[in-house]
Amino acid sequence: MPIFPRASAALVSSISSVLLCLALPQVSMAVEAAEGAKLSSKSSSKPSAAVNVFIGTGGDGHTFPGATRPFGMVQLSPDTQVRHFKQSYPWAAGYRYEDDSILGFSHTHFSGTGHSDLGDVLLMPYSGETKWEPGYPERAFSGYRSRFSHKYEQAEPGYYAVKLLDHDIQVELTASERVGLHRYRYAAGEEAKILVDLRNSIYDYKSKNLWSSMRVRNGTLVTGMRETRGWAAGRQLYFAMQFSQPFIQRDIQNREEAVEYRGFAGPGSNGKDKVKIEGKALVASFDFGQAKDQTVMVKVAISAVSEEGAIANLQEMSGWDFNAERAKASAAWDEALSAINIEAKSEMRSMAYTALYHSMMGPSLFMDSDGRYRGPDNQIHQAQGFRFHSTFSLWDTYRALHPLLSLVQPRQRNADFVNSLVASQQYSPDGILPVWQFHGLETWCMIGYHAVPVIADLYMKGVGGFDAEAALDAMVKSAEYGPYGGLQHYMKYGYVPTDLEPEAASKTVEYAFDDWTIARMAEKMGKADIAKKFYARAQYYRNVFDPKTGFIRARKSNGEFRVPFDPAVSNFGSDYTEGSAWQYSWYMPHDNAGLISMLGGDAAAIAKIDQVFDAKVDEKIYAHMEDISGLIGHYAHGNEPSHHVAYLYNYFGAPWKTQARLQQIMDSQYHAGADGLAGNDDLGQMSAWFVFTSLGFYPVAPGSNEYVIGRPFVDKATLNLPNGKRFTIRADNLSKAAMYVGAVSLNGKALEQNFITHEQIMQGGELVFRMQTTPNKQWGNARTARPYTQTTYGVQ
């Protein structure tokens, strides 16, 4: 695989104008290119200049490099995958850095997921003969795709540019929240043409496209829609596409097999030659002839409601000043990223800001400018007093992403998330909170009811702006909905029986944590009966712990553990979700004292967790599981169940071991290259882990209002908090060798606790770490210094 150059984003920015000018084929474009170069030559003080958007676009990171706004509805990015490719997993985001050809630029993408979908409304500029199929990269000129070189590719937050080598066309992309803006520069003397492909650019349209339509409204405006049955069945997306100048000829075809091709040609520029075509495989070509200044621009607005809604959303981007829109996108990212001022060595600073950038991709806005959106019942609803968001990868993001957003996003944004979740529950055909939702629709992917800890964590932190009574009601209904995920058995037996439900061990322990967060919120609201009930359910994890082996194991409905048992076995549909007993036996983040007691005390717990990291593991035992990656022994950083494990030493009285393990993880699982993420970023969870860890603390148990202290990896960082206060973290004597914490102080006073509270952060102040080369085994080891846990220490 090509290795992405580990240049800092500032260096990339400083040379980008030169590369961009080299990519432009015509001298007449030099003025506009120079204007673009001014924008890309940002001061290094701007956080967006430190972002390297290509981190994670290779390997298993599954991120995309295209243009979007923070939490934007449009994610306009290149797609490089081979259409109809059966193994879609590597191209889950549409783009892979290893590829050398592009088939077009579509307007919706997932950032870092382990499942491929989206890629809506693909545009591809071209000249010469019209080719209706994308072709294959190993057969040059076989279709409309084009080769490209990273030498002529530039990207930064809110902007992407590339030269299409086979077509000799320079492409630039930027975006507002609901509108993607394209600027295409064609070679002199060449006809300017644009192909629009409504067949899904990431999935095989033959099995996933249910229907699509395209309507030519006049010479510059085209609208349409597509309905798919991919990850979310019956998903509808509408678009409005406006050209900067009228086309002189157009041809729209339905390429569906056994359907007669229907082509249309005509001037189409006076608004009288309107046409609408429908089918499962629509492709259109628009010919602009000799375009003015060899340039054509296109705006594409999307909507989940209607074509008229998409047309209205176009008004979000007035005029055709590409550089002005690019500047707005850049400013939006600088504002969002300035939530943390990071001082660190260039590569670490770039990695930290890139991680922060990736943590602001989702949940994404998903409503029209008038507040209408499509809900989980596939009906249209009106948001009242909030902005509806979707794309909730909750099994991943409740762990660190949402706790991070509580610190770096305005209270209103976080309230919008809760209101969106609660509104979804109210319109859900099943009456429960989202499990894994995108574009308003439920996918039922993964396990747990993890919207619950997202809401509880924000409530416990005092984030208002939502109806707590309605939220708690939605949480309880989700936790008591028997038909979902074996919950009826969980409530009956006190665990999920493996002979009645797959992934039983994982479901039991994850349900128990969710239940604890319900209890926490109910207790704070004065709902004693609800709190008592769910505190009791939070202890159900004990029912699947086997004291003989020291592992979480699945039990049958007769109470017996399933045999035979191998703690390293993992399979889809088995007892564990994307993991094994080695990874899941640490999942009781709300009650680590209970785990210590069951394992036999601190020393036994430390020895057991050491085995996780130090085991000599043949990676072949996990090779069949795509999501189990980033292995250090049995620890799998590329997947979420392991993310809190390194911090557990703090609960066992050995925070110095946490510090050493974090160094091991950071060194082996992240770097400033295209393959710099060890696993799927999962809508920002991998990146949120990095942000927290680089600052020096991590939310092991969302809902506890505590962050477990690890060790910082940046020299200094200042959180510009949503309440207007500042909280600074400083690492004195930080170096690669000085990986251990010698002492910690908070606002000038020694901090003996190995955790810090949310309230302490929100009050503002300064947290100072004194780093050293040898471990301080006395700091933070006292029982009174350890983080929150539900069980009293010493309980048998």
TrEMBL record:
Ranges where the Glycosyl hydrolase family 92 N-terminal domain occurs: 51-303
GO molecular function: hydrolase activity, acting on glycosyl bonds
Residues in the signal sequence: 1-30
Coiled-coil ranges (or none): none
UniProt keyword Hydrolase present: yes
Organism whose genome encodes this protein: Undibacterium cyanobacteriorum
Pfam families membership: Glyco_hydro_92, Glyco_hydro_92N
Residue stretches making up the Glycosyl hydrolase family domain: 310-772
EC number: 3.2.1.-
Protein name per Swiss-Prot or TrEMBL: GH92 family glycosyl hydrolase
SUPFAM superfamilies (UniProt xref): Six-hairpin glycosidases
Keywords in alphabetical order: Glycosidase, Hydrolase, Signal
